[in-house]
Fold these 4 entries.
Entry 1:
Amino acid sequence: MSIEARLTELGIKLPKAAAPVASYVPVVVHGSMAYVSGQLPFVDGELVTGHLGENVTPEQGIQAARACGLMILSQLVAAGISLDQVSRVVKLGGFVSSTPDFPGQPHIINGASDLMVDVFGDAGRHARSAVGVPVLPLNAAVEVDAIFALESD
Amino acid sequence: MSIEARLTELGIKLPKAAAPVASYVPVVVHGSMAYVSGQLPFVDGELVTGHLGENVTPEQGIQAARACGLMILSQLVAAGISLDQVSRVVKLGGFVSSTPDFPGQPHIINGASDLMVDVFGDAGRHARSAVGVPVLPLNAAVEVDAIFALESD
Amino acid sequence: MSIEARLTELGIKLPKAAAPVASYVPVVVHGSMAYVSGQLPFVDGELVTGHLGENVTPEQGIQAARACGLMILSQLVAAGISLDQVSRVVKLGGFVSSTPDFPGQPHIINGASDLMVDVFGDAGRHARSAVGVPVLPLNAAVEVDAIFALESD
């Protein structure tokens, strides 16, 4: 089954790829690796903002992390990479806007990690780091960047 | 000398590889590179928790960083990679749970960096970033992720 | 035009490569990739310290990020890599020392991103993450690490 068919089966519609907030590009391909810039969480077109432990619930945080993951996929597609070319999700870097007493970053970033496994199956199982940060660009609740391995043509 | 023999000579016994806190994997190998997920510090089986600058001393922080490094090595071995296959420690990413007035992250992450040089010699000399964060998963004091280069068979 | 000539044209004089603050190395080359350790901002030989949102202005922050970028280039050169060998700036990781209410990290890290495009043109367009952190080594205002692709000889 193609990844596009699997997305449809999962009821997933990819968001419109967001323009970079600044002077960089969303995806760089070097050799068989695609590096995706840190993506912010848009749910129904609105940025999810705030801090876990303060004004963002864990459920909202998980949904935000999933939204970052969807945007990562959208950026690959917008860069001309078919999701069927992905041979492995190599690494996710998860940053969770957190008060100093919120230690639930792994649970939050699972929103993105689970998405990768839902979409790519075993090839979606990745290495990961998840950390708290005091604040993110535009006051986003979560940011996730990624490294993918691509099949050579 | 094999790395196993060097570990014995150094009096180092690797910890049991910890299960991922969430839905990802500890190690992904792509080409000649192994990406290791962010590892938390277990000393004598107990997670080292707290914040540098508040309730964790620099000495405890250094020991915690070293424990992260040991867990990174354990994860490689648990993934079926012999430490003798490591041709270079390429990069460590060090995250130190810190109050805003604690600027000693390099000194703390040296606990992991020095371990790599102790174990691998010149091949253990790596690129690195070290930053403060307000909080880490499970309130850990330190988290370290890593990229290794492996010899082709 | 060589990159050296372009630097001269831009009026850019690279700083002296700073010694690592700790037991690691500034640059590791593996295959066609160069990993550069997180660099701190020296302007006129002085480290730019403090927190955005508190005692560092956005203008100072942007200049600090540019200074990190210059130091990254200096480290490549000091490691024996000609800037003419750079085929692509692959990824920048930007860390901005921030109070929890300062959301302008992209604007700050543009200081480094714009430099890469100024120096390398289209090859300087990179993937990026930019996040806030509560504190950085030596109380630096900004830290940036980098991955470069190098031409094979």
Entry 2:
Amino acid sequence: MSHIELRCPKCGITRPADMSAEACRDCGSPMDVGYLATRDTKGDTAPSPVHETSARVTLGEGNTPCVILNTIGGRLPLGRLRAKLEFLNPTGSFKDRGTATMLSVAGERGVTELVEDSSGNAGASVSAYAARAGIKAHIFVPADAPEAKLRQIRAYGTEVHPIAGPREAVTAAAIAYAQQNALVYASHMLSPYFAEGTKTFAYEVVEQLEDDLPGHVVFPVGNGSLLIGAFNGFNELLASGRIEKIPRLHCVQSRNVMPLVAAFNGQKWGPEDAAKTVAGGISIAAPSRQWQILEILRLTGGSAVAVEESSILKFQRDLAEDEGIFAEPTSAAAFAGLEILVDQDIIQQGDDVLVPATGFGLKDEPPPSS
Amino acid sequence: MSHIELRCPKCGITRPADMSAEACRDCGSPMDVGYLATRDTKGDTAPSPVHETSARVTLGEGNTPCVILNTIGGRLPLGRLRAKLEFLNPTGSFKDRGTATMLSVAGERGVTELVEDSSGNAGASVSAYAARAGIKAHIFVPADAPEAKLRQIRAYGTEVHPIAGPREAVTAAAIAYAQQNALVYASHMLSPYFAEGTKTFAYEVVEQLEDDLPGHVVFPVGNGSLLIGAFNGFNELLASGRIEKIPRLHCVQSRNVMPLVAAFNGQKWGPEDAAKTVAGGISIAAPSRQWQILEILRLTGGSAVAVEESSILKFQRDLAEDEGIFAEPTSAAAFAGLEILVDQDIIQQGDDVLVPATGFGLKDEPPPSS
């Protein structure tokens, strides 16, 4: 018997664990992993939906360093500003945490071929772990996706399917292809296992910073899988008595694609208002877990702010030139948001803050010259 | 008083520790760090030339994962074939180990501006750590260096000096510029501190693999700093009784640039025989520490083999498509060499082998399509 089931985080409905990315049949929310039996962890390691540890598909993801940013932190000014270098995961982004879990479950369920849609970090991550697991991956991408992004995806031997039209057309084509060919749709946006895998972020933060836990964690948010995973992890650590308080979790988006910021602040915004952003990793006009993200901001006392394109690029430069950290624009957006959160006194001078640097600067297009 | 001095690994002559990259005035060998006083380590951590731990310039380098390569390892066939994912260092290559130490020493000696020559991983690494330390970096590069390589170097705000002519002209220009402007020449090829920093590789391998230490470690070798550092580290661990035996350390080069392989095997080869190789990181026609490298191969029972360009590219593809590891061609060269070492029965079927995957595939030019 399985030690897990799938559980809707919104209405609580459950169903047996499977590889389907199908949403809750009642309320439409993506499902989460629920545990039927508590395992013998002492609350120090995240529970895992993988049955056999030996069957884990791993490239050594996680255990990324936390480094102090004295220059940027001193300028704001904050107490200790730390970056967790999530781009030092095996494919260069935090996605590997989620993918490792999703592909481990797929592997032990005998999946041999799967479908995903992403022209960015998730596409590269799923491709790499699929290659490692001996699973054939079909990655659906926008026909106009930049060659630099596709290069890494193709390197892992993935079959890339370019689709014309808007981003939603790519998702629709991926789902249709999976259905027609009876393949698993291993969506980083919808899979309960992907979201579950990102929980290790919180466990590591607590292990690394221990008694020095930051008051705030500031995330760049597209689909929100890292923010959701971090919250679920912190929540488990709170329940087990390992920590006394969950940090305030904040959401940063580009002003050009800001569904969550608008919803959080009661502003009108629709996918038709979306414009191109340098922060490609958070260019998601309709996040499938929007409800869950807003609930987490509310529960932890977090906030949601939108940032200018120019500020994203400025912080990308500052991170590299002042701190030696070459991150994607998407990652830099979180620091641009942090500046606003300090300006608005939501984060106060002297507070300790942690920001995940989610993706490697090497992965993106060359930034416009300064 | 300093706890270190500089010591010639060839003739034993010493001089007080300084930031000069000058070779031994007697025999011309680059100098190493020598320790005057033993510190209070229990042999578990590498001794460091840095006086104040709090002054360390760090981006969280090291602690890279070791992963098992079942597919490639099974094909050769070996016992356990492991890759240590050195490309998951902060700038995407193992160089960060050496750079962190070199820049920490520079920082505590009050260096504010330095010079280095490299169009590749070392240039990016020195740029990043210099940025972090608030030190201005001048990186001298060949005028025809590929834009993709320069992009990362420039991102850290480095001043890039393009120099026309052969690779040696670039080094000469860097040295001349350093002399004219009374700046430190922080050469990853010559600095004793850089070589010293790479020792942590061996300490980590022993900590991670413990009783399961591989019989062989196979390195792609250009200047040989990782091989030298690893040997020095293993040697300290042997002296302290932490390990009983040093693994056999092997050297792999491209057939197009093979000074060490030729010297090891008594073949005639000169810089005039060098041709272009896809393995840019080991395209060093006259390694400044050649004597030291050959001595290490001899002492550990290692060997030196040269590989074809086509084999390098084949293993780059195999690593990505079969194991999910996207490494530079330079890193793939070591696996191509491993195949030869097995063919020649130098490494025997069933042996345990470790190979460092030294640089991220994202850092290089797109490989020719297969």
Entry 3:
Amino acid sequence: MKNLVGACVFGQSGGPTSVINSSAAGVFLEALQQSNITAVYGAANGIKGILDEKFYDIGKEDKKELELLKYTPSSALGSVRYKLKSAETDDTDYKRILEVFQKYNVRYFFYNGGNDSMDTCNKVSKYLLAAGYDCNVIGVPKTIDNDLYGTDHCPGYASAAKYVATTMMELNLDAKVYDKPQVTVVEIMGRNAGWLTAAAALANHKGLGADLIYLPELPFDSEKFLLQVKSVMDKNNGKCIVAVSEGIKTSQGEYVAEALSKAEMAKDNFGHAQLGGLAVKLADLVGNKYGVKVRGIEFSLMQRCAAHLASKTDVEEAFRAGQEAVKAAVAGETDKMVVFEREMSSGRYACNFRLMDVAAAANTEKKVPLEWITEDGTMLGKEYIDYALPLIQGDCKAPLEDGLPRFAKLKKVLVK
Amino acid sequence: MKNLVGACVFGQSGGPTSVINSSAAGVFLEALQQSNITAVYGAANGIKGILDEKFYDIGKEDKKELELLKYTPSSALGSVRYKLKSAETDDTDYKRILEVFQKYNVRYFFYNGGNDSMDTCNKVSKYLLAAGYDCNVIGVPKTIDNDLYGTDHCPGYASAAKYVATTMMELNLDAKVYDKPQVTVVEIMGRNAGWLTAAAALANHKGLGADLIYLPELPFDSEKFLLQVKSVMDKNNGKCIVAVSEGIKTSQGEYVAEALSKAEMAKDNFGHAQLGGLAVKLADLVGNKYGVKVRGIEFSLMQRCAAHLASKTDVEEAFRAGQEAVKAAVAGETDKMVVFEREMSSGRYACNFRLMDVAAAANTEKKVPLEWITEDGTMLGKEYIDYALPLIQGDCKAPLEDGLPRFAKLKKVLVK
């Protein structure tokens, strides 16, 4: 544990969320107050900005705009998807990072992202340590996928979940409006973990959810799906609403969207598959089988950037995660990630902030526990509702200007 | 002008909106106060509920729930798409309506919808008049398309426009996050009139909009489109965001989505077109031409049911439209539609409520004035911003319960 004096660099990585900038605000506002931190830099496009020596001077920003970052979705500094090779294979990037850090006297490095980004933190901190360069590295978790190991939940998840639940409620009302059979299939993000799709069950908790929910945690069977849809339609005046994770796979481990394409190609004899996302494909499957009106809907980018529907709990925790990262680094911690620990006392939720070895989070995936899924595999149980409900509490969003959100406007002054 | 004593029936028709239930609340709460109105009925699924004699007794509902209708999207009574034949061709439906109205002593009929629904109002009121049955019929306008003739704007439009503008701002931030070329195409509702797609320009007004906006008011040329996208990408670090109306047509009057399918089929030699909406097709066109990352996004049903983003101005005007319809009918008016008249005094917007012959609104379409579109056909001018901005002011939404909207829950007690 070393107390260092020097500049800090913060970078954003991976897919943006509604609250990644809230963590940025936490890092920046805390770092600007720390006397050991001599300059606060934002790396343009994450690790790429370090390699390219492209830093924004956060000290030149208005404090009011930094505060507005809390309510501004996406990645204000720009993001990147870049996986560092292992230093043993190719140490070019690491040498360059060390060179840049030395040049700017960077003694604190904060990186905000999911498991790949935590891997980056871990590799960089290990390399710098081996090179004898003192620099405290702390990871700040972020992912709408909620799949990071070692933390009760991830910043970004709750706001996306609140979007999914609220929008499912609204769609539920819309999809039932005509006195005719109609099947609606909604596709929700999440390649390997079904946390975000599970959030559709929060809408069920309020009586306006999906009739069937399919997560990637369980294999998907198209024939069974068709029967389950039929069974709901029979009970429900011909109506059925399905929430499905983009990442569902067949029992052979193939993505269902791809499997359906292949089945179409085989039928077609000429090897043509129809375009269209999973929602449209599954909706068409139902439409062709039962001759009912169907609609496939994708929540697309909206589910990760709808900051107007952010959870206040999420925004505040994301901000705190940034602050805590800075405090820990200044106190001498390194090679760690900030994690959330849930405390429930007399039914009230509280979130405690702890540190964990960043290596433990790197490249791991936390999935929805199978025992939280009902026996027929189409719904979440009470365990999930109890888990998720405290996280989506509270409203908070950017102030309105002309009836529209006033997002942060950074000057982005480049460091010479 | 006759002052009548009897029951009233209210029905909802056509595609739902975020505020159609706000008009229902206006009709119900006003009608329940009128001493000339002896019973307040809600027709299940619009005109179909009248033909089927399926009425909900609104007098049995809790007033608190009727108030919550203001913030509840979709059609609480159920909607219908049903175009009455002309009475000269086939008067079966009309005889049935008269029979039902006589049986329940219905002396007031309010119908909420777009131009087809106003046609229904007109036909029913003409028939009842000819049959010598006294019943005052008033149309309450509603459509996210904003294409009704004779009214400054339509209830439902502003909330959908606010969704489009807010979401475009959020997507704008998300779509620019990586340091790589990316073209995003967003498809917005509106078959023949581009009002809702135009709302993307409100996001431009706040600096975070679409680079190119294509309305159905002008013919669409794919080659020109590709050049326009390229020109934006060249100026803009490879980024381009396009907002496009689902209803854009070629100069031959063919829907662009269909024309693109045919072009694919011709190329394919086997007559196969790829599925997928217009957004995906246009995005693929760009991706194939320029080899850049593309994404097609549909606002789908969300744009018409996202009540959590409703415009307060819209919610209140929709409510007033319902109230005014009842007041006018009780005062003896019939065969009319409530219209909105804009009043601007010292830069402040106000909305006045008037009546117009419903025949004038029936089956007509008001389009975006061509002079509001910039010369190259890809953007809206200041006239549109001045028109639309006052309409999207103010926030209002359902109270939260467990962090999620508490929508109205009607008992829907059937009238025996």
Entry 4:
Amino acid sequence: MTPELAAALADDADRVERALDVLLPAGDGPESRLFQAMRYASLGGGKRLRPFLALEGARLFAVAEACALRVATALEMVHCYSLVHDDLPAMDDDALRRGKPTVHREFDEATAILAGDALLTRAFEVIADPMTHGDAGVRAELALQLARAAGAEGMVGGQMIDLETEGSEDLDIGAITRLQRLKTGALILFACESGAVMGKAGPGPREALRGFAQDLGLAFQMTDDLLDVEGTAAETGKAVGKDAARGKATFVSLLGAERARTQARLLAAQAAEHLAAFGPAAARLREVARWVVERRS
Amino acid sequence: MTPELAAALADDADRVERALDVLLPAGDGPESRLFQAMRYASLGGGKRLRPFLALEGARLFAVAEACALRVATALEMVHCYSLVHDDLPAMDDDALRRGKPTVHREFDEATAILAGDALLTRAFEVIADPMTHGDAGVRAELALQLARAAGAEGMVGGQMIDLETEGSEDLDIGAITRLQRLKTGALILFACESGAVMGKAGPGPREALRGFAQDLGLAFQMTDDLLDVEGTAAETGKAVGKDAARGKATFVSLLGAERARTQARLLAAQAAEHLAAFGPAAARLREVARWVVERRS
């Protein structure tokens, strides 16, 4: 990663961290355990890739920083909720996330379920709030697109397929690609496209960002699959070797590590090309595509 | 219940049932188990009290029927999601709901968690859709109010308090009242107020509906507590005697059955009075308040 990209990522991650701190509930009542779990699940960790994509996308259209930050933070709440629920014993049963005990380990299962529910709900509360954008049409459109990306025909649908097909050996590359487009791709698509919604961009730029997002999302997931095979828990902050242990079909199990790596790099290059028309303004997004496939965590 | 109210409730319940059928996802892919669980959780059951309140409230302001029905149906999705998650083994661990096995018993825990997540998300998708209301300001306001009602400082917060205080004997009537205002009251408040939002009503009618909702919500909960003591599973379609078995403080354990019944009737009468200014147009809502405290299920 270039020092410039590292600094930009760190800077945006700081801003998202502070926004999460402000936008998440706090207080001392009998429900404070819920607030603590929501904060534990969201604060102090993660690459903040999705909010970075949203913030960078918004910069292409000169969207007000405060507006973009609220949308980026709401999006991160949805991502964090999905991790909390996916980690539950009934789902992936993970003990470690971002180098810390998962929420149900640190608190308990009931609190983890509720904290996830509340994070998801808070995301829509933040987006629908007039403080997010002066144009209610933009707020409603953002809520609609986020719900589509996160719901039964997006992220949650992808997680259902992932659970349903675990241990199944007849998944082909088409089925895995569809699974990942839903499970991780839909939210990355929202991240990349949200700036165009906030900036009321025309169909051309919007389509370019969608193309970027789709290639980036697959490249990101292929790299995740590689890290599960080749990474260490110390590097990635989560358990590794899980896919093989569960007999899960992944891009790596289907293509082999070398072909998966080559394919990820090709997709990342192709992602960057979608942004050619934006010129130097999209330099960081193109740089992100390169980094996504070279990262070690 | 008067035959007129029974017919009106049944008629609106039919319309909500058909709308759920249209608005919930369907299909044959590997994620179809998720769609089936969402449908199992929502279709074919329940009093549909919340959607009825929303539909009747919308009629006071001559809101287009199609608009009100979408909002009422989204609201019912949120209610159904909360039941699915509350019934989970890590929460209330219930086997029976609306006379059928709970979702995690009929499917499995992972599917129940995901079906709840997807129902909640779908509710926001339906509300934010331009088909719901021509005015984006109304859609954004509905999404905002629904998120506030359902989230950490509303329904989910109430459920957290409920779990945290289970078995605790030092809950007083003030604490129980606050718990119920959050856990069941907030969504009932949204139900009653949403018609005023859709109809862009002024502060006077909106405040009257809020007053109605708050008294109705408490009367409803007191009656639920009474049914848990005095009802049968055959009547109520769910397990009874649970509160006492868990040592839960309820309105009945604190006030005794007789005082709780008297208090519920007083609140129901007071709820009806808030609607005096609406005249005969609110006759059904006033009738609902009477029914809520006399019901046997």
